[in-house]
Amino acid sequence: MNLKNICLGALALSMVSGFAFAGALDEPDNLAPFFTDSSMKTMKPMAEFKTAFMAMPKEKQDAMMKECQDAAMSKPHAEFCANVKMLGGANK
């Protein structure tokens, strides 16, 4: 019985910590303003992308910049990260 409780506790902890470590690029709600469609296949033009980026809180901008600097994170979001990197100096 005790082993079962330990396993359940470990599972719950791993699930909670997994959500806590989700990055800015892992959250669809963070990326949705930058795309024209709900499937997030078509990115908005740069002028609209910039407007959406500048409307975000500085903390989210910084988190996105940081994640786009990481090669492993930026690879699946290459086009998005290219735009974020281009705007990186504009918000300073």
Tell me the fraction of residues in β-strands, as a range.
under 5%
Tell me the radius of gyration.
Answer: 17 Å
Structural class: mainly alpha
Summarize the biggest pleated sheet.
none
The tally of helices reads: 6
Number of strands: 0
The H/E string reads HHHHHH
**First CA to last CA: what distance?**
56 Å
Q: Are there runs of 5+ residues with pLDDT below 50, and where?
A: 16-20
What average pLDDT do the residues reach? 81
Helix content: 55-70%
Silhouette: elongated
Chain-wise SSE layout:
Layout: H1 2-20, H2 28-31, H3 46-55, H4 58-69, H5 71-74, H6 78-87
Helix pairs in contact: 4-6
Describe it.
- This protein has 6 helices and no strands.
- The protein has helices spanning 2-20, 28-31, 46-55, 58-69, 71-74, 78-87.
- α4 crosses α6 (78-87).
- The model is unreliable at 16-20 (pLDDT under 50).
